Amino acid sequence: MSVRTSSLSALAVLAAIGLPLAALHGLEREPAGAPQAGPGRTDVMANLFEWNWDSVASECTGTLGPAGYAGVQVSQPADSLKRTKLGDGSDTVLHPWWEIYQPVSYELTSRMGTEAQFRSMVTTCRRAGVKVYVDAVVNHMTGQGSTSYGGRTYSHFEYAGLYDASDFHRKGTDCPSSTGGIEDFNNLRQVRTCELVGLADLRTDSPKVRNELAKYLNKLIGYGVSGFRVDAAKHVGQDDLLALQKKLRDTVDGDRPYVALEVFGGGPGILSPQAFTGAGSAVLGLDGDIQIKNAFKSYPADGTGSLAVLKTFGDGLTPSGKTLSFVQNHDTERNGDALTYKDGATNLLAQQFLLAYGYGTPQVYSSFAWSATDASPPSDPGGLITDTDCASEAWVCVHRDKAVTGLVGFHNHVGRAPVTHWWDNGGNLIAFSRGQAGWIALNNDKSPVTRTFDTGLAAGTYCDVTRGSVSKGKCSGPTVTVDARGQVRVTVPAKGAVAFTRADRV
Ligand code: ARE
Ligand code: CA
């Protein structure tokens, strides 16, 4: 964090003359193509996991654009497995959420909608100032089934008009494990050439496979897509990832596509996330979300934690400018690594911390409610995902919560101003400012705390953006007053925050 510079007025001048903010920074440069366009926007992304295309489009216009989100990540859009019977991973759910991770062709006919709906979603989002990032599955095809949402038939190694058996790694010749599956996630050759949970493993080292993948991704870029979350990137490997990216065209904005690589931590050396920072624009912040959970909710698992340790959040993790950070994603909300929407106010507080602190390109995850980990998103009987309804209990729209949108505005305003005026009580109450641009206090305890803090901000009355916003000089929620010494006396609510930027003066 220490390398973050800067004076906000200089940022504003650079932005005004159209220079990328990244020009200001050395180590902390924004990766090429990271969301940052549009007045008042920087880089915050929403991850609308398994929202259908029509719902994403209306969310871009209705919420994401107006709230200052710069980008949206959408789910794997290629045609995929459509199960016809139970078993093989789920004995109770016919259409688990994970069907989409078994691509059958690169036609854009999926559980989320048609190709026409996908295209129109991208256009609508871009018009709303929101860039679109696509979850791309390039490591494999399917591990079960024979029919797809697009109505195709296939078998494990045969995908008519696209791939045949010669395009896949095989047990014995390529993959050294006795089953043909990855049995040891620390074994480099197995990780790259064996099957991940039985999924037919593409020869991503072959020119033919690389060409087909590039054709698919370039089609998406041609539709206005700005970048990708690359699924199972660890299993593709650095060389093949770089070779594939070389074949990608520039985005419609003239940037290189932003490529965020999914690499779980724990792997040694070449298999670690740190070893992939040069193989794309960024890696997913999968170690960071574990640390956030451990700070906000440690054992005994009754909601106690110790936010004071976050003073050096980012230390030991992949560099901020090389990380797509989040509190959870669709895997970690299910595997125990991360906080989830079920943590309620604690989850919202963690989202606020991430947006305020500024580690990585921050992403806010919103998806459907679940009890069984295999559960399908709300769908029709044929598995097609139905429209998102944030008012229904079936969906969880974290990115819409005022506590979160207030901090999206905060994040956009403070830019890369450094963390200063850090204060903590050694436990669950912390406060810090971002240069002279904004200040926040976060309380992860079950009772409110009143005290006086140093903010470093100019004297004045400010609107608390966690509960209100400024319109025509008036605050729709509570206000706080900074005195001539830069001090503020506030009550920080239980499991809540107080935050304002210098743009929130009333
Ligand atoms: C499903 C069934 C299986 C069945 C298979 C094939 O569950 O029983 O064999 O289909 O028919 C998702 C689901 C899987 C699902 C798959 C395909 O999670 O359950 O399988 O879709 O439909 C490793 C990888 C990492 C991967 C995780 C899950 O390195 O890339 O495993 N994450 C991505 C996605 C997943 C997705 C896939 C990849 C596949 O985000 O959602 O799977 O496209 C250590 C290791 C890590 C390892 C991790 C596993 O940390 O170091 O490498 O991650 O353990 O927890
Ligand atoms: Ca592979």
From TrEMBL:
SMART domains: Aamy, Aamy_C. Residues 1-22 form the signal peptide. Its EC number is 3.2.1.1. Residues 43-411 form the Glycosyl hydrolase family 13 catalytic domain. Its cofactor is Ca(2+). Belongs to the glycosyl hydrolase 13 family. The keyword Transport does not apply. It is an enzyme of class 3 (hydrolase). It comes from Kineosporia succinea. InterPro entries: A-amylase/branching_C, A-amylase_C, Alpha_amylase, GH, GH13_cat_dom, Glyco_hydro_b. Residues 420-504 form the Alpha-amylase C-terminal domain. GO terms for molecular function: alpha-amylase activity. It catalyses: Endohydrolysis of (1->4)-alpha-D-glucosidic linkages in polysaccharides containing three or more (1->4)-alpha-linked D-glucose units. PANTHER family: ALPHA-AMYLASE. Keywords: Calcium, Carbohydrate metabolism, Glycosidase, Hydrolase, Metal-binding, Signal. This is Alpha-amylase.
